[in-house]
UniProtKB/TrEMBL annotation:
Gene3D superfamilies hit by this protein: Rhodanese-like domain
Annotated CDD domains: TST_Repeat_1, TST_Repeat_2
Basic and acidic residues: bias regions: 171-187
Annotated protein name in UniProt: Sulfurtransferase
Keywords: Repeat, Transferase
Ranges of residues in domain Rhodanese: 18-132, 161-273
Amino acid sequence: MRSSDGIVSADWLRGHAGDPDVRILDIRWYIDGASGLDRYREKHIPGAVYVDHDTEATAAGSGGGRHPLPEPDTFERAMRRAGVDRRTAVVAYDDQGGFVAARLWWTLRYFGHQRVAILDGGIPGWGGPWESGEVRVPEGDFAAGAPRADRVVDYGQVRRLEPGTVLLDARPPERYRGDEEPVDPKAGHIPGALNVPWERNVDGAGRFRPGPELRAMYAGLGIGERTEVVAYCGSGARACHVILALEAAGYPGARLYPGSWSDWCAHPDAPVEVGQR
Protein backbone atom coordinates (compact mmCIF):
# COMPACT_ATOMS: atom_id res chain seq x y z
CA MET A 1 0.00 0.00 0.00
CA ARG A 2 1.33 3.42 -0.94
CA SER A 3 0.96 6.34 1.44
CA SER A 4 -1.32 7.94 -1.18
CA ASP A 5 -3.79 5.04 -1.19
CA GLY A 6 -6.74 6.15 0.89
CA ILE A 7 -9.28 3.66 -0.48
CA VAL A 8 -8.81 -0.05 -1.23
CA SER A 9 -11.21 -2.53 -2.80
CA ALA A 10 -12.46 -5.83 -1.40
CA ASP A 11 -10.45 -7.58 -4.11
CA TRP A 12 -7.29 -5.82 -2.96
CA LEU A 13 -7.95 -6.87 0.62
CA ARG A 14 -8.63 -10.49 -0.35
CA GLY A 15 -5.36 -10.48 -2.28
CA HIS A 16 -3.53 -9.46 0.88
CA ALA A 17 -5.32 -11.82 3.28
CA GLY A 18 -2.84 -13.19 5.76
CA ASP A 19 -0.20 -10.58 4.93
CA PRO A 20 1.55 -9.88 8.26
CA ASP A 21 2.10 -6.27 7.22
CA VAL A 22 -1.64 -5.62 6.81
CA ARG A 23 -3.91 -5.07 9.81
CA ILE A 24 -7.69 -4.89 9.36
CA LEU A 25 -9.58 -2.73 11.87
CA ASP A 26 -13.34 -2.86 12.44
CA ILE A 27 -14.62 0.47 13.77
CA ARG A 28 -18.38 0.13 13.59
CA TRP A 29 -20.21 2.77 15.62
CA TYR A 30 -23.81 4.01 15.68
CA ILE A 31 -25.27 7.37 16.61
CA ASP A 32 -28.34 5.63 18.07
CA GLY A 33 -26.20 3.89 20.70
CA ALA A 34 -26.21 0.40 19.18
CA SER A 35 -23.11 -1.60 20.09
CA GLY A 36 -20.49 -1.85 17.38
CA LEU A 37 -18.65 -4.42 19.48
CA ASP A 38 -21.70 -6.68 19.63
CA ARG A 39 -22.10 -6.55 15.86
CA TYR A 40 -18.40 -7.20 15.43
CA ARG A 41 -18.65 -10.28 17.63
CA GLU A 42 -21.57 -11.55 15.57
CA LYS A 43 -19.82 -11.16 12.21
CA HIS A 44 -16.67 -9.50 10.96
CA ILE A 45 -14.04 -9.76 8.23
CA PRO A 46 -11.61 -12.58 9.11
CA GLY A 47 -8.66 -11.31 11.10
CA ALA A 48 -10.20 -7.91 11.84
CA VAL A 49 -9.60 -6.35 15.26
CA TYR A 50 -12.27 -4.15 16.82
CA VAL A 51 -11.45 -0.54 17.71
CA ASP A 52 -13.85 1.47 19.87
CA HIS A 53 -14.72 4.79 18.25
CA ASP A 54 -15.69 6.53 21.50
CA THR A 55 -12.91 5.44 23.84
CA GLU A 56 -9.94 4.69 21.57
CA ALA A 57 -10.28 6.58 18.28
CA THR A 58 -11.82 9.72 19.80
CA ALA A 59 -12.10 11.20 23.26
CA ALA A 60 -15.83 11.49 23.82
CA GLY A 61 -16.78 13.54 26.85
CA SER A 62 -13.46 15.38 27.20
CA GLY A 63 -14.67 18.71 25.78
CA GLY A 64 -14.27 20.47 22.47
CA GLY A 65 -17.30 18.83 20.88
CA ARG A 66 -18.79 15.37 21.17
CA HIS A 67 -15.82 13.54 19.64
CA PRO A 68 -12.60 15.42 20.33
CA LEU A 69 -9.28 14.08 19.13
CA PRO A 70 -7.70 11.46 21.40
CA GLU A 71 -4.55 12.15 23.37
CA PRO A 72 -1.44 10.70 21.69
CA ASP A 73 -0.79 8.14 24.45
CA THR A 74 -4.42 6.95 24.43
CA PHE A 75 -4.39 6.48 20.67
CA GLU A 76 -0.97 4.85 20.75
CA ARG A 77 -2.15 2.26 23.30
CA ALA A 78 -5.26 1.53 21.23
CA MET A 79 -3.30 0.98 18.04
CA ARG A 80 -0.74 -1.21 19.79
CA ARG A 81 -3.54 -3.29 21.30
CA ALA A 82 -4.94 -3.67 17.79
CA GLY A 83 -1.60 -5.03 16.59
CA VAL A 84 -0.55 -2.02 14.54
CA ASP A 85 3.19 -1.62 14.01
CA ARG A 86 5.10 1.39 12.73
CA ARG A 87 5.26 -0.18 9.26
CA THR A 88 1.77 -1.76 9.21
CA ALA A 89 -0.61 -1.04 6.35
CA VAL A 90 -3.95 -0.43 8.08
CA VAL A 91 -7.32 -1.03 6.41
CA ALA A 92 -10.32 0.29 8.37
CA TYR A 93 -13.97 -0.44 7.69
CA ASP A 94 -17.49 0.10 8.98
CA ASP A 95 -20.99 -0.61 7.63
CA GLN A 96 -22.20 2.96 7.03
CA GLY A 97 -20.52 4.06 3.84
CA GLY A 98 -17.13 4.59 5.45
CA PHE A 99 -17.68 7.75 7.49
CA VAL A 100 -16.54 6.18 10.79
CA ALA A 101 -13.62 4.43 9.10
CA ALA A 102 -12.66 7.74 7.49
CA ARG A 103 -12.28 9.31 10.94
CA LEU A 104 -9.82 6.55 11.89
CA TRP A 105 -8.03 7.01 8.55
CA TRP A 106 -7.69 10.70 9.29
CA THR A 107 -6.58 10.20 12.91
CA LEU A 108 -3.83 7.75 12.00
CA ARG A 109 -2.44 10.26 9.54
CA TYR A 110 -2.82 13.06 12.07
CA PHE A 111 -0.41 11.12 14.30
CA GLY A 112 1.99 10.45 11.43
CA HIS A 113 0.96 6.98 10.20
CA GLN A 114 0.58 7.28 6.43
CA ARG A 115 -0.01 3.65 5.42
CA VAL A 116 -3.75 3.61 5.99
CA ALA A 117 -6.85 3.22 3.83
CA ILE A 118 -10.52 2.45 4.22
CA LEU A 119 -12.27 -0.53 2.65
CA ASP A 120 -14.43 0.71 -0.19
CA GLY A 121 -18.03 -0.33 0.48
CA GLY A 122 -17.22 -1.61 3.98
CA ILE A 123 -19.13 -4.62 5.28
CA PRO A 124 -21.67 -4.69 2.40
CA GLY A 125 -18.89 -4.40 -0.15
CA TRP A 126 -16.95 -7.26 1.39
CA GLY A 127 -19.77 -9.78 1.17
CA GLY A 128 -17.91 -12.63 2.91
CA PRO A 129 -16.34 -14.83 4.17
CA TRP A 130 -17.05 -13.97 7.78
CA GLU A 131 -15.71 -14.70 11.23
CA SER A 132 -17.33 -14.40 14.66
CA GLY A 133 -16.03 -13.82 18.16
CA GLU A 134 -13.05 -11.60 18.97
CA VAL A 135 -9.62 -11.60 17.35
CA ARG A 136 -6.60 -11.33 19.65
CA VAL A 137 -3.30 -10.29 18.11
CA PRO A 138 0.22 -9.65 19.42
CA GLU A 139 0.74 -6.09 20.61
CA GLY A 140 2.18 -3.79 17.98
CA ASP A 141 4.88 -1.16 18.30
CA PHE A 142 2.86 1.74 16.88
CA ALA A 143 4.23 5.12 17.91
CA ALA A 144 2.04 8.21 17.80
CA GLY A 145 4.03 11.01 16.22
CA ALA A 146 3.64 14.69 16.97
CA PRO A 147 0.08 15.73 16.08
CA ARG A 148 -0.22 17.48 12.72
CA ALA A 149 -1.38 20.86 13.96
CA ASP A 150 -1.49 22.11 10.37
CA ARG A 151 -4.33 19.67 9.61
CA VAL A 152 -6.80 21.05 12.17
CA VAL A 153 -8.55 24.27 13.09
CA ASP A 154 -10.27 25.25 16.30
CA TYR A 155 -13.22 27.52 17.05
CA GLY A 156 -11.16 30.70 17.05
CA GLN A 157 -9.48 29.86 13.77
CA VAL A 158 -12.82 29.20 12.09
CA ARG A 159 -13.97 32.63 13.26
CA ARG A 160 -10.91 34.09 11.50
CA LEU A 161 -10.69 32.09 8.26
CA GLU A 162 -8.74 33.75 5.47
CA PRO A 163 -10.79 35.18 2.60
CA GLY A 164 -11.23 32.61 -0.14
CA THR A 165 -11.29 29.65 2.25
CA VAL A 166 -14.12 27.23 1.45
CA LEU A 167 -15.93 25.94 4.53
CA LEU A 168 -17.78 22.67 3.92
CA ASP A 169 -20.57 21.30 6.12
CA ALA A 170 -20.90 17.50 5.68
CA ARG A 171 -24.22 17.10 7.53
CA PRO A 172 -27.60 16.30 5.96
CA PRO A 173 -29.32 19.28 4.27
CA GLU A 174 -32.10 19.48 6.88
CA ARG A 175 -29.57 19.89 9.68
CA TYR A 176 -27.50 22.36 7.68
CA ARG A 177 -30.58 24.48 6.94
CA GLY A 178 -31.68 24.33 10.56
CA ASP A 179 -34.97 22.60 9.78
CA GLU A 180 -34.19 20.13 12.54
CA GLU A 181 -31.39 19.33 14.98
CA PRO A 182 -31.73 15.92 16.64
CA VAL A 183 -28.41 15.95 18.50
CA ASP A 184 -27.09 19.41 19.35
CA PRO A 185 -28.81 22.25 21.27
CA LYS A 186 -28.86 24.72 18.36
CA ALA A 187 -29.92 24.30 14.73
CA GLY A 188 -28.31 25.83 11.68
CA HIS A 189 -24.79 26.11 10.29
CA ILE A 190 -21.62 28.16 10.53
CA PRO A 191 -22.10 31.37 8.52
CA GLY A 192 -20.61 31.10 5.06
CA ALA A 193 -20.46 27.29 5.01
CA LEU A 194 -21.50 25.33 1.94
CA ASN A 195 -23.45 22.11 2.36
CA VAL A 196 -21.94 18.94 0.87
CA PRO A 197 -23.52 15.94 2.62
CA TRP A 198 -20.90 13.22 2.89
CA GLU A 199 -23.26 10.69 1.28
CA ARG A 200 -22.74 12.44 -2.05
CA ASN A 201 -19.23 10.97 -2.13
CA VAL A 202 -20.55 7.43 -2.58
CA ASP A 203 -22.88 5.58 -4.92
CA GLY A 204 -25.93 3.51 -4.03
CA ALA A 205 -23.71 0.61 -2.96
CA GLY A 206 -21.73 2.79 -0.56
CA ARG A 207 -18.61 2.83 -2.75
CA PHE A 208 -16.71 6.01 -3.53
CA ARG A 209 -17.57 7.65 -6.80
CA PRO A 210 -14.77 7.75 -9.39
CA GLY A 211 -12.19 10.48 -8.93
CA PRO A 212 -13.32 12.53 -11.96
CA GLU A 213 -16.91 12.60 -10.65
CA LEU A 214 -15.74 13.74 -7.24
CA ARG A 215 -13.48 16.34 -8.80
CA ALA A 216 -16.34 17.78 -10.83
CA MET A 217 -18.62 17.86 -7.79
CA TYR A 218 -16.13 19.73 -5.61
CA ALA A 219 -15.01 22.01 -8.44
CA GLY A 220 -18.67 23.01 -8.69
CA LEU A 221 -18.37 24.32 -5.14
CA GLY A 222 -15.51 26.59 -6.13
CA ILE A 223 -12.67 24.32 -5.06
CA GLY A 224 -9.47 24.27 -7.08
CA GLU A 225 -5.99 22.87 -6.60
CA ARG A 226 -4.88 25.80 -4.45
CA THR A 227 -8.11 26.42 -2.55
CA GLU A 228 -7.92 26.35 1.23
CA VAL A 229 -10.67 24.05 2.51
CA VAL A 230 -11.98 23.41 6.02
CA ALA A 231 -14.50 20.62 6.65
CA TYR A 232 -16.84 20.10 9.58
CA CYS A 233 -19.94 18.08 10.44
CA GLY A 234 -21.71 17.31 13.70
CA SER A 235 -18.80 15.98 15.74
CA GLY A 236 -15.87 15.59 13.35
CA ALA A 237 -16.34 12.13 11.79
CA ARG A 238 -18.35 12.65 8.61
CA ALA A 239 -16.15 15.60 7.71
CA CYS A 240 -13.21 13.20 7.43
CA HIS A 241 -15.12 11.37 4.70
CA VAL A 242 -15.25 14.66 2.78
CA ILE A 243 -11.50 15.18 3.32
CA LEU A 244 -10.82 11.69 1.96
CA ALA A 245 -13.09 12.31 -1.04
CA LEU A 246 -11.29 15.58 -1.73
CA GLU A 247 -8.00 13.69 -1.81
CA ALA A 248 -9.47 11.13 -4.20
CA ALA A 249 -10.59 14.07 -6.35
CA GLY A 250 -7.06 15.47 -6.44
CA TYR A 251 -7.61 18.20 -3.84
CA PRO A 252 -5.43 17.22 -0.86
CA GLY A 253 -4.72 19.30 2.22
CA ALA A 254 -8.19 20.11 3.55
CA ARG A 255 -8.24 20.82 7.27
CA LEU A 256 -10.64 19.41 9.85
CA TYR A 257 -12.58 21.31 12.49
CA PRO A 258 -12.68 18.41 14.99
CA GLY A 259 -15.20 19.98 17.34
CA SER A 260 -17.47 20.78 14.40
CA TRP A 261 -21.05 21.92 15.01
CA SER A 262 -21.17 20.35 18.47
CA ASP A 263 -18.34 22.66 19.54
CA TRP A 264 -19.42 25.70 17.55
CA CYS A 265 -22.96 25.84 18.92
CA ALA A 266 -21.66 25.45 22.50
CA HIS A 267 -20.11 28.94 22.31
CA PRO A 268 -22.64 31.60 23.35
CA ASP A 269 -21.04 34.16 21.04
CA ALA A 270 -21.00 31.90 17.95
CA PRO A 271 -23.05 33.29 15.06
CA VAL A 272 -25.53 30.89 13.47
CA GLU A 273 -26.98 30.93 9.98
CA VAL A 274 -30.09 29.07 8.83
CA GLY A 275 -31.54 28.29 5.43
CA GLN A 276 -29.83 27.33 2.19
CA ARG A 277 -27.04 29.36 0.64
